[in-house]
Amino acid sequence: MNDRLMKLVIALVAVGLFIIIAYQAYAGVTDEYKTETAVIYSSADTVSFRGVYIRNESVINQYVNGMLYFEISDGSKVGNGSAVARVYDSEDEINTIQRISEVEDEIDLLEAAQNPGTTSTAQPEFISNLISEDYQTLATSLAKADVSDIGDQRDNLLTLMSIYQISIGKETNYNTRINSLYNELSSLLSLNVTEKSTVLSPDSGYFVSYTDGYESILSIDTTDDLTADEIKTITSGQGANEIKDTEIGKLIKGYNWKIAGVIDNSAHVYNAGDTVTLSFTSTPDVVNAVIERLDATESEDESVTVLRCEEMTYDLVQKRVERVEMTLNDFEGIRVSRDAIRFDKDNNMGVYVLWGQRVLFKKLDVIFESDDYLLSRITSDSDYVAVYDEIILDGVNTADYMSNLDDEGLDETEDEEYEIIRYTLEDIKDEEDTAQENDASDDNTVSESDDESANTESSENSSGGEVINFE
Asked: CA 317, 320, 321, 327 torsion: positive or negative?
């Protein structure tokens, strides 16, 4: 084969190979993929129902001739024989007793705020930060309607603000205000208000200052026989016993209690023994519970459920019936649409993601599945899908090619095309080597004119020709 022609063919094949590879790479990275951004998502099975609180309760009965003043808040634990309320002749006397308590508290607060041991070491910046923290705590409690500790939070904030005023020199002391309060206190005490009688707790337990007529109807030990109709009757406010005038409150025995309701479990999501969380309309607190009983009824979409709880708070003793949300399997992970799921050659479940101009296969660690999506565990392992990855939904065939090209070589079709080009180049190179060997064997018979011609061609090649190295 003519040497010049052979070099031209080699150059054309090389250019063709370059164009094929460049086009495939360009086509792979310029496909318009439909993607979704991987984000953190929470998913859970939830059901809402009207719940009935069930506790072991005993009524406190005592005839009262006068006005009751409860000294403790609902939900407070009391001992046997401790005072839960005092009886006064009138509401004015109760207001006087309350004001005496308020004045005494303010005196204690101001005297603590101007204590030399406190003010001499108080740093304004430090106190200011504490005020900001307490203010945020107070604001958060108000926003959540959680007022169980609002009095203590208010007093703490007032104390800090009073100390701050002295630390920055705004106030020297609070003696004027304290003296005024002492004068008011003396005036209030001179009224000689005393209680007519005291109500004592007949037993130990958690005190509640009201009764609703269900105390003797509902108990923890009778929940096995509770029916859907009975629960509906209670949630509608019917079926309670008449409340007597002598009932001034009740005691809840122990911290264990239950809540019953009628739920739709037709999908068989919930089972007896499941651990769930309960949230309520009356409190921001979330309570852990165990499904103790879950019985189907004649209606397919109604099941009686009874849950056991072991957390007692002020809010949880305030009502007999309220709206409850029960949550099972509360998972948090990276949300992945089912349309994006693929499997690699090792049968690992995963997705294709765009990584700059590359397409990578990333595995999934599934922790939750639904009909439309699943959640993959959040992990720092780069082999798994991560937050903010661009997950490919459409264009997976191209993604498959790009992944294989990057990690495993070309696919079967492209491999055949590559082999044809590779074998063609090798054949041309073999022919060139053979021709060079033949030329070398005929060196002794080459004429001077041939040598001059060869030298001329060599000079031409060295001055402007492109040498392609296949080695």
From this structure: positive
